[in-house]
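Narrative summary of target 7.
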Amino acid sequence: MTEKIKVACVVGTRPEAIKMAPLVAALKRDPAFEARVVASGQHTDMLFQALDHFGIEADVNLDVMKASQTLDHITSSVLEGVGRFLDANPQDLLLVHGDTTTTLASALAGFYRKTPVGHVEAGLRSHDLARPFPEEANRLLTDRLAQLYFAPTQLSAENLWAEGVPKSRVFVTGNTVIDALFWTLGREKEPDLLRGMPEGDPLVLMTAHRRESWGEPLKEICAAARSLLEKHAELRLLVPLHKNPAARNTIQEELKGCSNAVFTEPLDYPQFVAVMNRSLFIMSDSGGVQEEASALKKPVLILRELSERPEAVQVGTGVLVGTDRRRIEKEALRLLEDRAYRESFANREAPFGDGNASARILDAIKKYFKKSGGVPESWIK
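Modeled conformation, tokenized:
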């Protein structure tokens, strides 16, 4: 190992960039580390928008994205690209995040070169390989390949221990998305489309894009949203449309003609935080939004049958409503019409961290390398 700990951080999608950015910034500030950022380009504009917000530039851009890209293409391109980077730039530690295809392919490239892999946001489980797809498989396989595990909650750590991961390699840190959120608060930018809305009009944010929701489940979600808008003409439903046509086209078609539904292209992160802050409540199938909404004290209706973040449901910051139109509408109407119930969410404890996850991860890495005097031989079986 060199005098400095050489760490490469791989990001591929906008959520990865947002969640890794505070950690990258902390690594670059700390003289104990030599940090580099590898962007796979699984997303392009959205990825680099997020990095720009935090003042981070990628050292390497693999630029793998292409039109109508398949999971096979992303996996093979990222595997080869990260492999070439590691061959030319040996690292002491490769950090990957979460559950994307970039995450799994990068971890595999590290494993092939006996480069230790640290998994940020390790241990999340829905316990169903089909939901979410392919994310549940991605995180399970990444955790089989990793050597250091940064679990956001106690429950995620317990999942890892139950699978046989040694406790000495698991660190409960909180989620770095809360670091990113707190850094952004005060820097958020209200989108122009919000400035045109009367201040008194209630606003609800809806995001939906999961592969397992494509088709009929997404139509059910939209049917509930349409009914809500018909019953409450004063309501404004803001819908940032995902880039994937399978999600965007369905939403546009199913909510066509709803004058109080406002469609927009994906918002950059400061704008998205501003919209979350302005909303009465949020309807979403996003994992990160569950975490951010909890920290912002905003109720979130989770548009999924299963969640790998059950902590939100357990403490009551989120309500798991699935994709059944009747249940979605029932819970949304309750939030709209029962002010006391809606405001009760502000008194519930946020379970995903306090904004200091990045500092804990750095401390854990230093502790492990100091304890081992380098990369332990036992890491590489």
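The longest helix spans residues 71-88.
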